Every structure is written in C-alpha cells, then in structure tokens.
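Dear Dr. H.,

I hope your travels went smoothly. While you were away I took the liberty of generating a structure for the chain from your last submission, since the lab meeting agenda had it listed for discussion. I wanted you to have the full record in hand beforehand rather than looking at slides cold. The sequence, exactly as received, is reproduced here:
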Amino acid sequence: MRYAYPAIFTKEDEGYSVIFPDLEGCYTSGDDLQDALYMAEDVLAFTLFDYEKTGRDIPVSSDPAALDVGDNSFVNYVACDTIEYQKRNNNRAVKKTLSIPEWLNEIATEKGVNFSQVLQDALKSQLGL
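The corresponding predicted structure, in token form, is as follows:
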C-alpha cells in the first residue's frame, strides 16, 4: 500500500524534528534535513504498517495549506510503501505445511527444485508483488 501524508519539519538547535499531525504518535527527528526525511519515511511506513496489521482506520491526509506551522517550520509531503517496508523489515521465515502429489514431489526432487523458492515466487506472482 502506498501513502503520502504531510509532515511538519521544524528546525531545532541540532537537526530537525518531524511530526505527522494526522497520525497519533507518529513523529521522529534527524541530525540534518536529509536524515530527517529518511527517518520521516521510515516512521510513516512503520506507523501505517501497524495500522494495517491491527485493523485501525487509516485517516485521510490533511490539506497541507490548512496546517499551522511556526517560523522555523515547513510542511512537506512524505510518501511510503508499506509492502516495501515489510519486505525490508519483516523477513523472518515462517514454516508452512503443504501437500503435493507424490509423483510431482519425486520429479521435482530429482531435478533439485528448491520448494521454498518456488512457493515464494508463485505467491508473489499470484499476489502481483
């Protein structure tokens, strides 16, 4: 899932703080603007992945023009992809039991087929990933 939300970036004495006003508890900081942008994308993806996983309603993003910011602040959209986030951060292997016909198993074993890889490839194809 792809999302874009406005974030308020505030210049601090050291670096930048970042807050997403539409998402409860979604904030971060960075040593400089580049680091703050990177951290903002990461915390946005983490927060929205958690919303998806727990079934929370994902709020509509605000109009950036409606956000009130101070003199040392500016608003910038931050985009993320929670599927890409999961690929990077949730790669723990999970065992699955499945059944196939014996004759197919024998031929595939003789040919040195990696069953786990075939299943992963087939699932990605089926899910359009």
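Two observations you may find useful: The chain has a mean pLDDT of 92. The beta strands are 2-11, 16-19, 27-30, 73-81.

With kind regards,
E. W.
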